[in-house]
Structure formats: C-alpha cells, structure tokens
Amino acid sequence: MPQVRAREMLVAVEHPVIGRFPLPNLPIKLSRTPGGIRGPSPGVGQHTGEVLRELLGLAEEEVAELAREGVVMQGDEHGPELGPDGVPVPR
C-alpha cells in the first residue's frame, strides 16, 4: 500500500447518496496535463434533460413527454428513484 499512497492511486470522492468512498485515480501522471478525478460519476439520467434541452434544442414540454412515455429517464443530482428491485422507476 505505500506505493499506492505515494502515487495517489486512490482518491476519496464524496457521493450524494452513498457518502465518501475511494475511487482509482488516473494511472498515468503527466506534469503538464495532470488530470484527476473531480467527483463521482453522474447518476442514471442525471443530465438527460440538460442534454436534450441545451444540446438538442428540445422544449421542456418535449422532454417531459419523452420521460412520460418512458423513452428517456431523468434523474436529479442523486440519480433516478429506484424500485424495490433496484431498477430505476420512470417518472
């Protein structure tokens, strides 16, 4: 473990649902473009509305209709609501 600590191969990340947990850091260390882990991965559907509205130009009503029809899944910063089986529940 000393080598893992010395190379900062694990970083602690704060997740809005599960709390603080370790993630593997980038294995390659570059001096000019160091990179790194900035946070947890997004929840399922977390950015769906943003992408559909801002990048594809859909209206809010169109995004809501796609979600109602189950075509897309939307989540908040915590991801979608999960059913008892752990599967995301459409909104």
Protein architecture, described:
By secondary structure, this protein is an alpha+beta fold. Helices cover 24% and strands 13% of the residues. The chain is built from three helices and two strands; from the N terminus they run H-E-E-H-H. It starts with a helix and ends in a 23-residue tail after the last helix. 2% of the residues are buried. The model has no long low-confidence stretch (mean pLDDT 83).
- Annotation field: number of helices: 3
Number of strand segments: 2
**Strand order in the sheet with the most strands:** 1-2
Q: What would you call the structural class?
A: alpha+beta
Looking at the structure, what is the overall shape? Answer: elongated
* Proportion of strand residues: 5-15%
Poorly predicted regions are none
Largest sheet: 2 strands, antiparallel
Helix content bin: 10-25%
* N- and C-termini, Cα separation: 44 Å
H/E series: HEEHH
List strands and helices in order, with pairings.
Elements: H1 2-6, E1 10-15, E2 19-24, H2 48-55, H3 60-68
Antiparallel strand pairs: 1-2
Compose a concise summary of this entry:
This protein has about 90 residues and is of the alpha+beta class. It contains 3 helices and 2 strands; from the N terminus they run αββαα. Helix content is about 25%, strand content about 15%.
Features:
91 residues, alpha+beta, two-stranded antiparallel sheet, 3 helices, 2 strands, 24% helix, elongated
